[in-house]
Design brief:
Length: 142
């Protein structure tokens, strides 16, 4: 984080440093420090879908579900093929209580990607992959 701040000290509009440092602050729970960097990144690189993702992340962490949904919707519109945009948009629809729209998302993806192998994720048993799980083969037990 010090290195990215050093970059911003010499080049305050470096889009890469703004996005990475703001994300570091967000995942560290320092929304107060991330917010001005996200705003600057959005102004410097407004056509980058990541600028919308970071705006949505700030809103989500501050409990503004509706504005988070709007930011992630914009991200998805900017890059409709992005699996991350679809994931974050869907997650925030659920957080905002827009369950009907969230439930409709996988069907829309399937229709849009006709001919591409895609299926909804399967439910994984809670014990699957645990060390003492009897379903693990003898070779993988340690």
């Amino acid at each position: 984080m010090r290195d990215f701040q050093a970059v911003l000290d010499t080049d305050p509009n470096n889009a890469d440093a703004l996005s990475i440092l703001s994300n570091c602050y967000l995942i560290s729970g320092r929304v107060d420090r991330a917010r001005p960097l996200v705003e600057r990144f959005s102004a410097v690189d407004p056509l980058n879908p990541l600028s919308q993702a970071l705006r949505g992340y700030v809103d989500m962490l501050e409990g503004r579900s509706e504005t988070a949904v709007a930011a992630y919707r914009e991200m998805l519109e900017m890059d409709p093929s992005s699996p991350m945009a679809r994931l974050f948009y869907g997650m925030n629809l659920v957080r905002a209580g827009q369950l009907d729209e969230a439930a409709a998302r996988p069907r829309r993806v399937r229709r849009r990607r006709a001919g591409v192998a895609w299926r909804p994720p399967r439910r994984v048993p809670a014990r699957c992959g645990r060390r003492n799980d009897p379903r693990r083969s003898l070779e993988t037990r340690g």
